Amino acid sequence: xxxxxxxxxxxxxxxxxxxxxxxxxxxxxxxxxxxxxxxxxxxxxxxxxxxxxxxxxxxxxxxxxxxxxxxxxxxxxxxxxxxxxxxxxxxxxxxxxxxxxxxxxxxxxxxxxxxxxxxxxxxxxxxxxxxxxxxxxxxxxxxxxxxxxxxxxxxxxxxxxxxxxxxxxxxxxxxxxxxxxxxxxxxxxxxxxxxxxxxxxxxxxxxxxxxxxxxxxxxxx
Length: 221
Hints:
By secondary structure, the protein is mostly helical.
């Protein structure tokens, strides 16, 4: 067990803490301590997603366990966040949105598993890489919207900056759904093109072998 794997494990262990913070009634307060603590845990866990991969590559500590735990932690964190939000803030995150977002994760995992069994890989697309940022914004905004519709930030005695939490949460979650669908299609197209090329190469190789066999049979006769 190395440092990157320990960091990945902390992300997995933070998931039940995050869910407990959103569902418990023991720390409900008038100032939104519950929401702020849940946001802090989720942001910290999301940041570790980049740290463990960076350290593993930098230290040359890419292991089989790490390759298993890292995507597992990502899928668990996304599933836990959006399933909990369906209960916690259903008018911002309805069930069908959670199904689309989580279903995208299962689809990508399945495509990567099939690709690995066929001897090739599917690289992460730019859409997939930007998904983490949108995910953090959408989850945090949906949590904060449960407590505040707007934030009023007093710049001075006469100027007030209104921060539309409700609008940002709705826009972020819809953008998350659109990005999930777009990246799923992107991964599927990449998978299909590679599997199609693999089938073509396999057919050519089979045709070459059969032609050589025919030549040998003709020569033998």
